[in-house]
Design a protein that fits this description.
By secondary structure, this protein is mainly α. Helices cover 94% and strands 0% of the residues.
């Protein structure tokens, strides 16, 4: 007996666990979406940093290229007057060119990383959109299934029976109305018909008078 009781308790616990998991599907999906949103935020921040780094490399590269052109022009300009000074200019030119080569490599690496991070962010954003839509659809389907389960055919029949009984009560009340009320309504209707005929006669007299005046003028 105790063994059967333990088995029953174990099975009940497993069933309750499965039921809890089913009921928490929407919550679990929401938690997963929040985790993915956190990853998207971190990726977006990383993209901002990499983009900023690429912009700095690009700015430094432009500055060093400008310096290389400047020292090249200075070397050519002063060579005829002072060759040693021209050589110093060439030395500065070489350093600028080395910086240009280094910055070009760094800029290329940074832009490549930026493109990769941007692609990752786009992928995450697409996944988020798909998961959000899927979560809403499944939640709507689950709610609809729950409503249908709660409002089965028996419930609809009960509601229909209520309206049928209500209609029957109204019809019974209508048949039980006294004849005096009907007579009163007929009496009132007779007055309304007489008043309507009088109004029509007045309109006809007015039209006749207007037509007579028009013929007199002509």
């Amino acid at each position: 007996m105790n063994s059967l009781k333990r088995i029953f308790i174990s099975l009940k616990g497993q069933i309750d666990h499965v039921a809890d998991e089913f009921e928490n599907h929407e919550a679990l999906a929401g938690a997963a979406i929040q985790d993915l949103q956190a990853i998207a935020s971190k990726t977006r921040l990383h993209l901002h940093r990499v983009s900023k780094m690429s912009a700095q490399y690009q700015k430094q590269l432009a500055e060093q290229q400008e310096q290389a052109c400047l020292w090249s022009e200075r070397a050519i300009k002063v060579r005829a007057e002072d060759e040693q000074k021209a050589l110093q200019c060439v030395k500065r030119l070489r350093l600028a060119q080395q910086q240009v080569n280094l910055l070009e490599q760094q800029y290329q690496q940074s832009t490549a990383q930026e493109a990769k991070v941007r692609n990752d962010l786009n992928t995450i954003s697409e996944q988020l959109l798909v998961l959000k839509n899927k979560k809403e659809i499944l939640a709507a389907r689950q709610n609809r299934a729950g409503i249908q389960r709660e409002h089965r055919g028996d419930s609809m029949q009960d509601v229909q029976s209520v309206f049928e009984r209500w209609e029957g009560a109204v019809v019974s009340t209508e048949y039980e109305m006294p004849d005096a009320l009907v007579d009163t309504d007929n009496f009132a209707n007779e007055f309304e018909r007489e008043e309507d005929e009088l109004a029509l006669k007045i309109m006809l007299d007015e039209l006749t008078e207007v037509g007579h005046i028009s013929n007199t003028k002509n």
